[in-house]
Amino acid sequence: KKKMAKSSRRKPNILVTGTPGTGKTTTSSQLSEATEFRHINIGDLVKEKNLHDGWDDELECHIINEDLVCDELEDIMEQGGNIVDYHGCDFFPERWFDRVVVLQTDNSVLYDRLSSRGYDGSKLTNNIECEIFQVLLEEARSSYPEDIVVPLASNCVDDISKNVTTLCDWIRSWHPTS
Ligand code: DAT
Predict the structure, then answer these.
(1) Ligand 1 probe mutation, 16, 19, 25, 26, most atoms within 8 A of CB
(2) Is the ipTM value over 0.95, yes or no?
(3) Which residue, 63, 66, 152, 175, is the most exposed by fewest CB within 10 angstroms?
(4) b (16+ CB within 10 A) / e for 102-135
């Protein structure tokens, strides 16, 4: 693997993570429109490029092959200007990201969102517990430098535009050497 210093990027890379349903894809696509940064939805990429080891019947999702995903993205991440959208964050190289955003949603709001998405039973319960126990925030904090991890509330539509504005401002003030 090529190892380039973070400072070689002329644009930053942002990771948008959080429990399913917290608004990663909505937020990332709006941020992508506002900035012309590339939106990389890892779930879609895994499906499109077959970067998985089959289907997990119990968890009802593809068994992601983390090495294949990282190899696939290495060159593109080196260029900068990427918004990566995924409900996990501990397997990406730490050096890829300049900002790690953890979206958070109140339990009752998230419950309704996931129910209307058709989640029920253990899939619904698991995701609600994931949010209650702040699993993604903990994962982000243990995988990246503390000062680049930012939790952002994502409870209503206003939060989405507020978060997009916050991130646009941050991108504008980012410098390759910082
Ligand atoms: P994720 O990518 O985290 O799974 P999503 O962007 O697909 O989430 O959003 C799931 C659903 O919830 C979708 O119908 C849009 C809605 N939604 C997301 N964030 C929201 C917010 N902050 N306020 C209101 N609705 C939101």
Answers:
(1) 26
(2) yes
(3) 175
(4) bbbbeeeebbebbeeeebeeebbeebbebbeeeb
